[in-house]
Write a structure and sequence with these properties.
The chain is of the alpha+beta class. The protein has ten helices and nine strands. The protein has two domains: 101 residues, Phosphorylase Kinase, domain 1 (2-Layer Sandwich), CATH 3.30.200.70; 200 residues, Transferase(Phosphotransferase), domain 1 (Orthogonal Bundle), CATH 1.10.510.10. Strand 7 and strand 8 form a beta hairpin. Helix 5 crosses helix 8 and helix 6 packs parallel to helix 10.
């Protein structure tokens, strides 16, 4: 079975770069990405750049351009977000049915897990991102809601042949209870939200001697501020509390934080678990996914996933993290 990305061969990629007004050297290096296709492109007499080819049919031009505008606005205020390059005023290009954007190449490494000084530094920039993000809402980008991120993902799992028959009924009941609990917590805690990075995990932060650089705004959305903080926490409850305290120490330098949102950490983790699994099931027809995630076709993985969801249902009933 063919897939739209099957046509995205090196010659087409290089032709696309030329169509945007750049002169490629012929060097194309595939970078780690699954939702989109991302390549480092060598240029004649210039530093390499990074080309992101958007998954066909996922986003409208309006949603992509709104992402680009947000990134560029942050960069304009000297926040280290890697924003798309503009060529003759354009940031979104099209070639042979593929839409793509070009970015400066940014080196770096992942932040050190649990490093409190780095977390405080990251927190300062997140505070600035959110300060800018609160001045107006997104018009086209999605909002963080159960009906947009949770229920469609649940239906994708239930409709997938990857879910073993012996776990189908348990998954249906458990995921319904989980999403109902997430919905209740969101309704009790959040307002309209602000513009966010949306997928601010350590893999989307590149650390250099100059500090953090935030990359991949592809999932930016409207939601509660804690969405950009909780994925940076790891370890047991004590460790996460120390990390959260460091993040907020930096964050509050630039923006107040509503402590009521701490009660959303486990609900948002639960929503991500459901959404991530649904994403994998929806993308299984893309040959890159069975190669990268073969364990999704194993019954043992689903047994562990069910256990994780059961644990999350219990964690959502625990008191939220409290700062020291």
């Amino acid at each position: 079975m063919s897939h739209p990305y099957d046509r995205l061969q090196p010659d087409l990629i290089l032709d696309a770069i030329e169509s945007a007004g750049f002169v490629p050297s012929g060097h194309v290096l595939a970078l780690n990405s699954y939702e989109n296709r991302v390549y480092q492109i060598g240029l004649e007499e210039a530093a390499p750049l990074v080309a992101k080819f958007y998954r066909p049919g996922r986003w409208s031009d309006q949603t992509i351009l709104e992402e680009h505008a947000f990134s560029q606005a942050l960069t304009a205020t000297e926040i280290p977000v890697v924003a798309p390059l503009a060529r003759d005023g354009k940031t979104l290009f099209a070639h042979e049915g593929f839409r793509f954007a070009l970015f400066p190449r940014q080196g770096g490494r992942a932040p050190e897990s649990g490093d409190l000084d780095q977390l405080e530094w990251i927190g300062r920039f997140l505070g600035r991102i959110h300060l800018a993000g609160q001045d107006r809402p997104f018009r086209y980008r999605p909002h963080l809601r159960v009906d947009t991120l949770g229920h469609p993902a649940r239906e994708a799992v239930l409709g997938s042949p990857l879910l073993p028959a012996e776990w189908r009924e348990r998954y249906a009941q458990l995921s319904r209870s989980l999403l109902d609990a997430v919905e209740r917590h969101l309704q009790e805690t959040t307002s309209a939200g602000i513009r966010l990075h949306g997928d601010c995990h350590p893999g989307n932060i590149l650390w250099t001697d100059a500090g953090p650089h935030f990359v991949d705004m592809d999932d930016c959305l409207q939601g509660p501020a804690i969405q950009d903080l909780w994925m940076l926490l790891a370890g047991d409850r004590h460790e996460m509390t120390l990390q959260l305290d460091a993040l907020l120490e930096g964050y509050r330098t630039f923006r107040d934080f509503d402590l009521r949102e701490l009660s959303l950490i486990e609900p948002l983790r639960s929503l991500r678990l459901v959404h991530y699994t649904g994403w994998l099931c929806r993308r299984w027809d893309d040959p890159a996914f069975p190669r990268a995630f073969p364990w999704l076709a194993e019954a043992g993985w689903w047994e562990g996933h069910i256990a994780d969801l059961e644990q999350q249902l219990l964690r959502m009933e625990e008191p939220p993290l409290q700062l020291y």
